[in-house]
Amino acid sequence: MSIIPRLIADARKIVIKFGSNTLADGEGRINAPLLAEFAEQAGALIKEGKQIVVVSSGAQVAGLSAMDKWARKKDLHYRQALCAVGQVKLMDAWERAFAPQGIHIAQILLTRDDFGDNTRTLNMRNTLFTLVDEGIVPVINENDTVSVEEIKIGDNDTLAAQSAILWSADLLILFSDIDGLYDKNPKEDPGAQLAGEVQDITAARQQVNTTGTSNFGTGGIVTKLDAAEQAVSYGIPMILAHGGKKRALEALAAGTQLGTAFLVP
Ligand code: ADP
Question: Does this model's pTM top 0.85?
Fold first, then answer.
């Protein structure tokens, strides 16, 4: 069995993160069919005895489709208000996706401070365990309404890694809009090579940097490497893969879809 299918087969507790680009359709709305297809695959894994926690971006995307007249408002309070509107739509979309599987979902909104406080951490951990033990799929997002720039976790890759560590997950999967880690930004360089497996993240950072033409550092790939580094340091392997491909979770488990596996040394 190749590495990605083996990681999924061996994991009981899996945190799966969706980026905004993956959740949005071509028109900038939440891609409901994609969510439904994912829920079906997640439901099948849960029936097999696995446990799943979702980390979902997309509040802003969902908010904009409701409040399109706010699209140009850059003011912080409007952006936070937009996320507050969008978070409801986002959770509605997740609820509709999981309902046909007979699975309830639960919303968990977190900030950076929550991870730095022992009492809150313990409460979060206990709530996560309780929900998952009851067969509920928690859907975690950053609490944008209270998170101003200075106190933000800032990106959901880090939030996903911290959630995986908090819940003592066996595996973290980041679903993005690329197949994995390349030596250069694949959107700018069609000749970019995919890394199937990363054993040494520090070395990987250097290899990606040394290509010279890479957009490394400006793309969202940096926070994905940071997330991998955090997760792996707690013994949790991570898979970075394309979440928009057909039945991506099943395809990864079957070894028919490529991705990058960040392995625990
Ligand atoms: P998400 O919304 O899924 O979190 P981001 O847009 O933040 O995704 O980050 C993924 C993007 O990072 C890719 O779409 C790609 O354009 C960019 N990127 C830059 N350098 C690389 C690289 N070396 N390998 C893969 N992706 C890269």
Answer: yes
